[in-house]
User: What shape does this take?
Amino acid sequence: MISPVRPQARSEWAALVEGLFSTPAVIPPKYFYDSLGCTLFQAICELPEYYLTRTERAIFTTHADTIAAVAGRGRQFVDLGAGDCAKGEFWLSALQPRRFIAVDIAAAAIEPALARMAAAHPEIEFSGVVTDFSDVLDLGPELDGSGVTFFYPGSSIGNFSPDKALALLAQVRHMCGNRGGLLIGADTPKEPSRLEAAYADTLGVTAAFNRNVLNHVNAMLGSDFDPAAFSHVAFYNVPDRRVEMHLQASTPQRVQVAGRERVFTQGDRIHTENSYKYSPEEFAALLRRAGFSSVVVWQDPAGDFAVYYAE
Ligand code: AVI
Assistant: This one.
């Protein structure tokens, strides 16, 4: 039921080490999602400051019938970055997919969700693909050539640089052929104070999520980062229209990584995430550049978030 598509594991390891020795150091955001990271991310989605998840859910709920009419029912449904599949599961009743394919880097997240949904919906064929699609979206032989709806919610597209986002959207467009579309959510630009609160909440859940990436890196590489020695930094970079997250060394650090030593002076940062924000006009233009011809957009009344269906 779950197919691993991970031919690139060795080069990913080398890229992670290279990022840790670059200046400034970089850890790609995909490494947030070990088991604890997935749980912390679920908690982030419940935070009062993190409006993204609940605003997107409200748009889905308000416009479910219209979206289903536009996207079409009874298709294959590909849940990209599915996690616990909670967002994809919402669409089972409205879209009545024939097949549900969960795609995620974390097998531990999708396995129980697929088992749970398969028990509740024997009429739908459920499968999973464990893969890292941050460079190439490879679903192996999963799709059967009939109509397909790709689903990429939560503004996860914002975690790619605009160039890489364009490349991913173009790959999805290619896989849609003549009988497919993409239902996708993307966050919009807004006052820096609201964006910064969403990524630096008062309970410190996002700080824990950010620091935990060092635990994951330690487990992967056998390195000895001390997460407590790094503080969480999040700010809105206005010209680049992105929230940046960093880990900043609170004191000088000498870290053993893959047989080498990485020295951080006090204040040195590790860049862990960008979260790009797009106006509806900008994002619709990106979808068109990726090869989609028709784009429909739905927003909440305040315009805090946007959902697109592109064909
Ligand atoms: C998964 N992704 C869309 C989240 C975001 O908003 O960029 C990850 C996240 N980072 C901090 N809080 C949430």
